[in-house]
Specification:
873 residues, alpha+beta, 35 strands, 6-stranded antiparallel β-barrel, 24 helices, 9-stranded mixed sheet, globular, 39% helix
Length: 873
């Protein structure tokens, strides 16, 4: 048997099923599309659910893929064992109502034995215990001895996920040999040891589960095959684990090189090496699909993966940022199967490095917070030496502070963590996350009236060439039911065979307009792109009636479309300008193109400077003045890449793509655009802001929108000038004059406040408390600045005294304490005095040993606060 590499095995599988008349589809993005039931794609069939349910018609009834997947359910075990990983590739061949068990079984056996070269004597099939049909195929057609075919129960050999399609499985196990086994003399297929490894799983989707345990036979049966590529490589290369497979081992070796550690020399180091290897693989693929670190959803998963890897790098002794160097090896070993990794490597490296740097700061902040937390427990916890699980979870969840660091630090102080409380807080967060993703059906989306439409119904978009077109009504709906007629005053949806209306897609807003038939008129207020290529015209019948089968005239609002096109084309020019000015790490992270404005989100890690904004604006306007014609071409993905076409993160493209070029801007895009950049007229950035970690947002205007913006700004300027009795030309000078006047008034006001505060201080009484001079004074209607000034004055007059001041202002209390250095040396701390006194005024506070402050909302408790401070002293 040849020891094929992982990349070879992937291509062998796809080539084999292409020879069996399967359509080979590229891997879908890790980010699910129109499926709220998943954070990340976790199986080969997950992105194909619409085809299995019949909601969409597949491009072919036979499909094969190699799908990138991420599962984080066992993330805590990654690294601790050589079995667990978060990223994997799933090979799959699928039949949508075409072939079934006979072909699926035969081809799985043929691929493993004839193509890959595994010995038939080391392969063992299993079937669901009640699936006699599959058993007979294995025995009578594949000629496998009955004692080599294993029957397993529902837990092992029946695939289902709540309500929806389901069915029995037939798996194929490979005997890796006794050296991988356990000591049990009865060890056989199904044992938990590593000897018998499942390499192939045929799922025969033949039933529908109603969610109550009732099964009905599907009218069309399907095949869903899953075979982990890394597992297959383990078997073919005869290595111990996935971490010894050629491509993954190259990543692991890179970690060893950076750390100076050799794999399998030290088990503790091995855990970290394996974890970094796996987590950087996952993070690299996630970032390439447009996921960015954040504190929620899939962004939180990415943040956790990167930070865990960074933490274990530190444990290996790696100094500084290093994850991007590991990602280089991931990209180098995987780019043949996933060319988008190389295209987006700049963004991948920058995102990882930025998050690593941020984590370093977080560790320092987290350690300070942990120390403060411990101090509070030591002050108030008595003999109890257990830190609340809730408090540790807050550190972990909000600030990303690793619990193992917290445990190590607390261990040296004699404190421990409430593990059960921490687990309960973790479970509560996971439950909340699941509820946030809760959906009503198997598809991971809310059920709508559109689900009832015939999946064969499709619409053809003709709006690139036409703004008005004739079409035939294929389907009508009200807001909640299918119908054959819509009458005046009714809201609903119209589906036609052809339409010039652009549906909201790729950030471009939908067209508005009218559909007419004789005197009947339907106002189109929204256009939606639905599954299966259906285009829904949503709106209301203004007059007359529309019937299914009617021939109608569809007319878009042309002026609005032209404004949208100007803004859309401007986003392409903007994208190129940003990459030129800021760097190749910039990629589009979202957009909104409307008639009056455009919004463009992009990956970048700091606010743009005024100079950068001006440079980008100038570049876009220069492109507009070039009067470049827009060139649209339909070509292959490979040729588009050769032209340098930019693709959107996470977008799924077919074999043929639409390339839009304007000057030096080349992008894959399905939207509508100006015919010449001159139609954009002009471009102006209105705002540049941050919307998430590593994501910036530009809002801008063009053409008519820019004219409206400029006129609005001029009116604002004129109104502002009139308000201060000036002219637009003299406004700046007038404002400067007013600011100088205000500054002088404030200076005089502060001076008066200080005089009033000094007067209210009156005679100061110095008490002796525990052998120390103590001044406690109440002042009302004095702010914190004045209070500090008075405190400094008292400290100058009484350098050996503890000063404790309180002021009441509009129901609020301000406390301040100052302690001289000589008394600090004796253990007196201003922060301790404030902490002791603040509860009396229903507040809290703290600070440094020499000066601290606090506050509350109970002025009646000020005398009690003084008493508490004295007691503390």
């Amino acid at each position: 048997m040849s020891k094929y590499g992982l990349n070879e095995l992937r291509q062998m599988f796809l080539d084999f099923f292409e020879s069996k008349d399967h359509l080979i589809m590229k891997s879908f993005s890790l980010v699910p599309k129109n499926d709220n039931s998943l954070l990340l794609i976790n199986s080969g069939m997950a992105p194909l659910k619409p085809y299995f349910t019949g909601q969409e018609i597949p491009p072919k009834n036979r499909v094969a893929t190699c799908q990138k997947c991420i599962r984080t359910g066992d993330i805590e075990n990654v690294g601790k064992t050589a079995r667990h990983g978060t990223f994997f590739e799933m090979l799959g061949n699928f039949s949508f109502g075409d072939y079934f068990k006979r072909e699926a079984i035969a081809w799985s056996w043929e691929f493993l034995t004839d193509v890959v070269g595994l010995s038939p004597d080391r392969l063992y099939p299993s079937v669901y215990e009640e699936d006699d049909e599959a058993f007979e195929i294995w025995e009578k057609e594949m000629h496998i001895a009955p004692d080599r075919i294993f029957r397993f129960g529902k837990a092992d050999n029946f695939w289902e996920h709540g309500a929806g399609p389901c069915g029995p499985c037939s798996e194929i196990y490979y005997d890796r040999g006794p050296e991988y086994g356990c000591d049990d003399p009865n060890c056989t297929v199904g044992c938990e040891c590593d000897r018998y490894m499942e390499v192939w799983n045929n799922v025969f989707t033949q039933f529908e589960n109603d969610g109550e345990g009732n099964y009905t036979r599907l009218e069309k049966t399907n095949i869903d095959t899953g075979m982990g590529l890394e597992r297959l490589a383990v078997v073919v290369q005869d290595v111990f684990s996935i971490f010894d497979v050629d491509t993954i081992h190259a990543v692991l070796e890179k970690v060893g090189e950076l750390s100076g550690k050799k794999y399998k020399d030290n088990e503790k180091d091995d855990i970290s090496i394996r974890l970094i290897t796996d987590h950087v693989r996952s993070a690299t693929f996630m970032i390439s699909d447009g996921v960015l670190p954040s504190n929620e959803g899939r962004g939180y998963v990415l943040r956790r993966l990167i930070r865990r890897a960074a933490r274990h790098g530190s444990m290996l002794g790696i100094e500084g940022t290093f994850l991007a160097k590991v990602a280089e090896t991931v990209i180098e070993t995987s780019k043949d199967g996933y060319p988008e990794l190389a295209e987006r490597q700049a963004a991948i490296y920058k995102t990882m490095t930025r998050e690593e740097e941020q984590f370093g700061k977080t560790l320092n902040q987290g350690m300070e917070m942990l120390k403060n937390l411990l101090t509070e427990y030591q002050a108030t916890g008595g003999d109890t030496k257990i830190i609340s699980g809730e408090d540790i979870f807050k550190l972990y969840d909000t600030y990303g502070f690793p619990t193992d660091i917290a445990k190590d630090y607390l261990e040296d102080t004699g404190y421990t963590i409430d593990e059960e409380g921490f687990k309960a807080a973790m479970k509560r967060q996971r439950d909340q996350a699941r509820q946030a993703r809760a959906v009503s059906n198997y598809m991971g989306a809310e059920a709508t009236v559109y689900d009832e439409i015939d999946p064969a119904l499709t619409s053809t978009f003709v709006g690139y060439e036409h703004h008005e077109y004739e079409g035939r009504i294929m389907q009508l709906t009200t807001t909640n039911a299918l119908t054959e007629v819509l009458t005046a005053g009714e809201e609903g949806t119209v589906f036609t065979d052809e339409t010039p209306f652009y549906a909201t897609s790729g950030g471009q807003a939908a067209d508005h307009g009218v559909i007419t038939s004789g005197d009947a008129e339907f106002a189109v207020q929204d256009v939606r792109k639905l599954s299966g290529g259906k285009i829904a015209h949503v709106g209301m019948v203004r007059k007359g009636a529309f019937h299914q089968g009617d021939t109608v005239c569809l007319s878009i609002d042309t002026a609005r479309r032209k404004d949208i096109e100007a803004n859309h084309s401007a986003t392409h020019l903007l994208h190129r300008a940003l990459r030129t000015v800021l760097g190749d790490h910039v990629t589009q992270a979202g957009s909104l193109v409307e008639a009056d404005r455009l919004r463009f989100d992009f990956t970048h890690f700091e606010a743009m400077t005024a100079e950068e904004i001006t440079a980008v604006e100038d570049m876009v306007n220069a492109d507009i003045r070039m009067l470049a014609d827009t060139d649209v071409d339909h070509t292959s993905m490979d040729k588009a890449r050769e032209r340098g076409a930019m693709a959107l993160f996470g977008e799924k493209y077919g074999d043929r793509v639409r390339v839009v070029q304007m000057g030096d801007s080349v992008e894959l895009c399905g939207g509508t655009h100006v015919e010449n950049t001159g139609a954009i007229q002009a471009f102006k950035i209105i705002t540049e802001t941050g919307i998430a970690s590593g994501v910036r947002r530009i809002e801008a205007v063009t053409g008519r929108g820019m004219l409206e913006y400029v006129n609005g700004q001029l009116k604002l300027l004129q109104d502002a000038a009139a308000a201060v009795k000036s002219t637009p030309a003299g406004l700046f000078e007038r404002l400067q004059q007013m600011l100088d006047e205000i500054k002088e008034v404030r200076r005089e006001n502060e001076s008066l406040k200080q005089k009033m505060a000094q007067k209210s201080l009156g005679d100061v009484t110095v008490e002796t408390v525990n052998g120390k001079a103590f001044i406690a004074q109440r002042l009302d209607n004095v702010d914190m600045n004045a209070l500090r000034t008075l405190g400094d004055d008292l400290k100058a007059k009484h350098p050996d005294a503890v000063v404790f001041l309180a002021a009441a202002n509009d129901g609020r209390v301000t406390l301040m304490s100052m302690v001289p250095d000589a008394l600090i040396a004796q253990g007196v701390k201003a922060g301790d005095l404030i902490k002791a006194a603040a509860p009396a005024v229903n507040g809290r506070g703290g600070g440094r040993p020499n000066m601290a402050q606090g506050g509350g909302d109970n002025p009646a408790g000020i005398e009690d606060a003084f008493a508490a401070a004295k007691a503390c002293l």
